[in-house]
Amino acid sequence: MVTAHIRTRNLNLYFAQNHVLHNITMSIHTHKITAMIGPSGCGKSSLLRCFNRMNDLIPSARVEGSIYLNDEDIYSSKANVPQIRTKVGMVFQKPNPFPKSIYNNVAYGPKIQGKISKSEINDIVEKSLQGAWLWDEVKDRLHSPAMALSGGQQQRLCIARALANGPAILLLDEPTSALDPQSTAKIEELCLALKDQVTILIVTHNIAQAGRISDYIAFMYLGDLVEFGESSEVFTVPKDPRTEAYLTGVFG
Amino acid sequence: MNLRKIYSVSGRFSMSLLFIFTTLMLFIFLGSIFSKGYKVLSWEFISAAPRAGMTEGGIFPAIVGTFWLTLISMLIALPLGILCAIYLYSYGKPLWFVNAVKLSINTLAGIPSIIYGLFGMAIFVNMLSLDVSLISGALTLSVLALPLIINTAEEALQSVPKDFSEASIALGAQKSTTIIRVLLPSALPNILTGAIISIGRVAGETAPIMFTAATFYSRKLPASLGDEVMALPYHIFALMTEGSKADKQEPIAYGSALVLLTMVLGISFFAIAIRYRMRRNKQW
Q1: Which CATH topology does A6-247 take?
Q2: Which of A12, A55, A162, B272 has the greatest number of CB atoms lying within 10 Å of its CB?
Q3: What residues does A37 pair with on adjacent strands?
């Protein structure tokens, strides 16, 4: 598994005239879980979507500054965007498996990369499903529709689908907000198990969840990165009064 | 007396009345076609060519003609229409241009079919010198079907949840890969609905083929794209407006109508069955 160092420098994001992210400079620690927290509309999801250039899909979006993935600027004009997205996987808020079979969902990434044999794909599918703790539940029905799985299973399938590309980084955009507590707990444990393979960035509304799983916290407010540090420190002795106010529930 | 209750009861009553009226009209329609046409139905009627100035024999050449006209026009219009819809949905830029194209398509959809017939005669028959032929008729019919297919295909693409495309892009797929592997397969059942409707429309049209493809009487089947063909709707039209033995021609016209109706319904049911199979796997 490849490791990748990822950092942003003076990152600014605009949606038309709207200045959404202000001069974000941060370094993500490899093989750690970094949780991005903050009130609604603070820009945490928009920031997450900068790391795999998903904001490119929004016509009015404009990015200034840089994000370096192993010293390669993913916003340079020479960047191979689809290839970057295979290294930086993403899991969305609402489980969004394709209306295909379980097998074809996981095999999608490797298949579109082209030249790869059937047995290799079979291996990748099995490993990815095992990696996402779904293998035992679905190994007897790999070719049944993914839409028939439960919400929690669907979300783990989406994680498996992202893992099949062999990413160095996994972006999770509020991955448990549509799930029940049991499925949520399972995904959280899974994140902890996965950080040996991938660097995880997770956006969450749930401060307790950030506390349970994250090594680092990035607190965002109104488009600014207010505070970034080890979770234990941010939670116990926040440096910024806004962080403290948010964590203690004064607003949010 | 409670006014609200009166409203409620009379509202429900008038709605059921309207429902019964509509259904009744449909049954009267089907019943009258059937009762006037079924007497002439026989194996000979659907397998033989017309004889004795169309007062005897069958309508086989017209069935074959309508079949080929519909098939060929669909083979032209479906790929073109779907590609156009994909362009409008995924690539079309800038917005004013897309909107102008959509406006023209909607305008085209409202043009009377006889105008398509004149257009087909001017362009395909005369300008491109394709003469009155199967291919001229099929091309004219495909132009007629295009707006319908483009509109339904575009709606079908729009009804696919954005999540699917997003997931595909996030996995490193190119836009074109996403369209081919995710967007189109998901939209296909609804695209098929558009195709079904346009098949019904194309098979039943008379005006566009009158000047471009149809012949009044032909004993032989079309052997190439350049041949004139008989077609069911035009055959019915001819039986009711020409010839001198109205009492013999009219039942044949109704029999032909019955066959045309059955063909269109048959194709529709076939397509609906395929669509049902496709939809079973999709729950969103």
Answers
A1: Rossmann fold (3.40.50)
A2: A162
A3: A219
